[in-house]
Amino acid sequence: MSLLTIKELTKFYQADKVAVDHVSFHLNKGECLGLVGESGCGKSTLARCLLRIEPIDSGSIFFENEAIENLHARNLFPYRKKMQIVFQNPTAALNPKLKVKDSLIDPFIQFKKELSLSHFSYTSTDAFVKQLLEAVELPADLAHKYPHELSGGQRQRVTIARAISIEPELIVLDEPTASLDVISQKAVLTLLTELRETLNLSYLFISHDLAAVSQMCQRILVMKECRLVDQFNTDRLFDNERHSYTKELISIF
């Protein structure tokens, strides 16, 4: 069943500069869908548009079969808790003046009237934060530390914990391992796979790393120069019918 459907989404940054060009695809419930392409091709802009962080110029965005592309802020609010994002740079994503526990509790405070949690329980702030840290395999004592006191891998795990804290249905992962070392990358990818299965999450996994995408995802979208040029099941990655750009990406990973 489709969770997210994008139809002919188009975004301009200037009157004559296209950022996303008539992109259409769908993402199924429980799926990890990969979006791969070189830097600057429009992947992150597409993510911000489908999350309604940025306005679109034309096209449609359906979440659970409801059109959300034109919803005003008040009507969009119930959908915000269903869609979260994990950014590439965890240092920039975390407020340096807030302790980890405060960053983790913030989404709950914002959406508590809309929430009915099934995987986490809220009996106290400390208990809730401990559950979230355990879910991303971090020790409870990190709750009282500031972001600069953590390693890069730990910071990214905190941003993941924050994203899952309100039990969304969709998480957009925008280059979530790009700033990490190889060992941390592997550990985070394994964690994300486990969380998707445990929490019944759906992912849009954005990366320029075709190897990581092919490891994580059931289907793959390939983007080049603001357009989708290829879509296929991951087990069809090496088929002869793949687009020439997809074959180029394969040759270098």
Automatic annotation (TrEMBL):
The keyword ATP-binding applies. Keywords: ATP-binding, Nucleotide-binding, Transport. It comes from the Bacteria. Gene3D superfamilies: P-loop containing nucleotide triphosphate hydrolases (3.40.50.300). One of its GO terms (biological process) is transmembrane transport. Residues 4-250 form the ABC transporter domain. CDD domains: ABC_NikE_OppD_transporters (cd03257). The keyword DNA repair does not apply. GO terms for molecular function: ATP binding; ATP hydrolysis activity. This is Peptide ABC transporter ATPase. It comes from Ureibacillus sinduriensis BLB-1 = JCM 15800.
